[in-house]
From TrEMBL:
InterPro entries associated with the record: Fatty_acid_hydroxylase, Sterol_Desaturase_Related
GO biological process: lipid biosynthetic process
Membrane-spanning parts: 7-27, 33-55, 76-95, 101-122
Protein's name according to its UniProt entry: Sterol desaturase family protein
Length: 174
C-alpha cells in the first residue's frame, strides 16, 4: 500500500514539467479538435508501448530487479491492487511517457491530460487477471493473459498492452 501511495503521488505530479514547458513555449500545442484529441490519444498509447517496453526490459536487468522491480513482482498473480505497486524510481520512469514525446511532437492539451486516464484503464485491464478474447493462440494476445504469464514466470511479455515488441525483440523459444 505504501509503494502504491508513493507511485500515485509521483504520477500525480508528473504533469508539472509539462505545464512548465507549455508556459515557457517549449511545447507546441494543437487545437482541441476531436481529430487532434483522438490522434493524440492513439499516438500516446503507441508511444507508451515503446516507452514501457524499454523501461520494463531495463527493470528486468539483474541489479534493477534485485533492488527496484522486485516490489512490483511481489504480486505473482496480478490484480488491480498491484497496478501502482512500484518502487519510487520505477514509478518516476514510467510517469515520463508524455514528457518524452510532447516536446518533439505537437499534441492537443486535452489529449495530453486525458491520456493518464486511458493509461490507467489499460493498466487495470492488464492487471485484472482476466483473459480477453478467445484465448486461442498467442500471436496477438492483449492485456491480462500475457501480463499474468509475465508476473507468474518473471520473463517475456514485457509489453504494456500488446505483445508486438516482445515478438520483434525477444529470442524465439524452442
Amino acid at each position: 500500500m505504501g509503494h502504491s501511495l508513493k507511485s500515485i503521488f509521483i504520477f500525480g505530479f508528473s504533469s508539472l514539467p509539462i505545464i512548465y514547458l507549455i508556459r515557457t513555449g517549449v511545447i507546441e500545442l494543437l487545437p482541441n479538435t476531436w481529430v487532434n484529441i483522438l490522434w493524440g490519444l492513439a499516438l500516446l498509447t503507441l508511444w507508451n508501448e515503446v516507452h514501457f517496453y524499454v523501461v520494463h526490459r531495463i527493470m528486468h536487468l539483474k541489479p534493477m530487479m534485485q533492488h527496484i522491480h522486485y516490489i512490483h513482482h511481489r504480486s505473482t498473480v496480478p490484480t488491480v491492487y498491484s497496478v501502482y505497486s512500484f518502487h519510487w524510481l520505477e514509478a518516476f520512469l514510467l510517469s515520463t511517457v508524455p514528457l518524452t514525446i510532447v516536446p518533439f511532437i505537437p499534441f492537443s492539451i486535452v489529449a495530453v491530460f486525458l491520456y493518464p486516464t486511458v493509461s490507467i484503464l489499460l493498466n487495470f485491464a492488464g492487471h485484472c487477471n482476466y483473459r480477453f478474447g478467445d484465448g486461442k493462440g498467442d500471436s496477438w494476445r492483449l492485456f491480462g493473459t500475457a501480463h499474468h504469464e509475465h508476473h507468474s514466470k518473471g520473463r517475456k511479455n514485457y509489453g504494456f498492452a500488446l505483445n508486438l515488441l516482445d515478438k520483434l525483440f525477444s529470442k524465439p523459444t524452442k
